[in-house]
Structure of RNA helicase:
Amino acid sequence: MSRYDSRSADPASYRDRRGDSGFGYKKENDSSYKSSSSAKREYDGGAPSPPRKSDLDGLTPFEKNFYVESPSVAAMSEGEVEEYRRRREITVEGKDVPKPVKSFRDVGFPDYVMQEVVKAGFTEPTPIQAQGWPMALKGRDLIGIAETGSGKTLAYLLPAIVHVNAQPFLDGPIVLVLAPTRELAVQIQQEATKFGASSKIKNTCIYGGVPKGPQVRDLQKGVEIVIATPGRLIDMLDSHHTNLRRVTYLVLDEADRMLDMGFEPQIRKIVDQVVIGSPDLKANHAIHQHVEIVSENQKYNKLVKLLEDIMDGSRILIFMDTKKGCDQITRQLRMDGWPALSIHGDKSQAERDWVLSEFKAGKSPIMTATDVAARGLDVKDVKYVINYDFPGSLEDYVHRIGRTGRAGAKGTAYTFFTVANARFAKDLINILEEAGQKVSPELVAMGRGAPPPPGGWGKEVSEDGIGGKAIGDFACELHEPKKHIKSFAVALHVLILRFAA
């Protein structure tokens, strides 16, 4: 019986299959069995991790260390290891880096994986495979740099198959591979299908430019490997067609290219969900965050007043919730003499490209956009971000304002916050405080669930009870800005394997 078929009948059988293949499986009632967190401490050499938050306490421990060094590899002296790495042009950095393997036999892949390797006609591991496989099978975090055609896809796919075979049925994918383009994603899927066939591992490829229906059906039926481009995957997550709660093996293929294409916010959003489930969001400390509580009908006048104060020819990005809102506000701004253009999903690709080129060139320094249209948007020197409409999640808030303050520069973000957004007040306060911002008393009161003042949030009542003005003219100011450190490595054809700890 196959691994896939055996899960529902005998949860232990698929583990026994891997155990018979030389990966040293230890039964769960064996005292030597280690959960993922203890394995990380042993192999990464780190101190015990702090206690997990309560929202992760119920997650099932998983195995990620399946590597047993073969006698021939163990017998290699340090001199022999260095000579092999020199001859294969392998350069390594890090601590406790395992020795490279010289043959497929040294890796100890299970028979069902080796059958596919033999079918493919491979004779020996490529350099990225020779050094990458022991690290990936140990469950180590890995950044691998290799040229095209070097076998890097199998460098992460074969350990992924072993990883999947060790996990029980889960309520979502186990392996997630992110790729920058549809073409690369399809190529990866072809390899995953070929090498996962013997153990009946299901996969699907999620990318834009095609109908979502077939992709949604694949996800609903259940798959263990998802290969995706960032934008379409976030669409699927936002639509609740899948989740990343049980992803324990994450690959960013050609991560440098994704960063060059402007996918950093999407990558951060996805990785946050994989690594810690419900993350403690943190904003870039180089961004001045200003939040003003207003009423809905005050927004446009507030926007015009703000533009009058800050307009100096710098690029200004204004976020709206809807396409209709983008068009309406852009039309009104242009009627009032402001150089504004809009970008959203209903515009043709040619029009979107033209709007973006005008914005980048500074010919139209004001651009309104929806979240979907702004995905993958990489424009340098955006000085101001304005949240005309507050987004539907705190993650999107952090990603929106992250369009400014990039590459070590300072930036400023303004946000209009209404009573309809009150449910986000408490978490927004946490983000502001973590970034060293001052929080207005009105926002604090809203976060506590206090009743609105006379006249409602966003207004002050004058002594005669008529009219009034908006409270708190952007009352949140930056306090002790801290240095922002860019956290993504950029290199030629970077492969990042991230095992959730």
